[in-house]
From TrEMBL:
InterPro entries: SNase_OB-fold_sf, Staphylococal_nuclease_OB-fold
Signal sequence segment: none
Organism: Cryobacterium fucosi
Gene3D superfamilies hit by this protein: 2.40.50.90
Matches recorded under SUPFAM superfamilies: Staphylococcal nuclease (SSF50199)
A Pfam short name: SNase
Protein name per UniProt: Nuclease
Domain TNase-like, residue spans: 9-117
């Protein structure tokens, strides 16, 4: 299913750890002193999986752009991916998305669901 969506909600979150170049654990400030810690997938991209060429480079880059402990603005999407991860855009201080940076640097390819081949 190749469907693009619009982001729905905006929050601030603390980066807990990067699983790989497109999957991250965040603690999200939901307001009213309520937080949620869960895994997210960067929306609209796909990076190499562990043991694939490019994995280390993509993972290193996201750890430079938003290392563990960093507070980042995020925009989330209404529906999770097929693995139950919420889809997210993560923003840099200059208002670029990590998603777009990874694509522009050749560390990720566009991906909106469906077959990756």
């Amino acid at each position: 299913m190749n469907v693009t969506m619009e982001p729905t909600f905006t929050y601030f979150a603390r980066v807990e750890r990067w699983v790989d170049g497109d999957t991250v654990w965040l603690t999200v400030d939901l307001g009213f002193r309520i937080t949620a810690r869960t895994d997210f997938r960067l929306y609209g991209i796909n990076t190499p999986e562990r043991n694939q060429p490019g994995y280390a480079e993509a993972n290193a880059r996201v750890n430079i752009l938003a290392p563990a402990g960093t507070i980042v603005p995020i925009k989330t999407y209404k529906n999770p991916d097929k693995y139950g991860r919420w889809l997210v855009d993560i923003y840099t201080p200059d208002q670029r998305t990590l998603n777009g940076i990874l694509i522009s640097e050749g560390l990720a390819v566009p991906y909106f669901g469906g077959s990756r081949t």
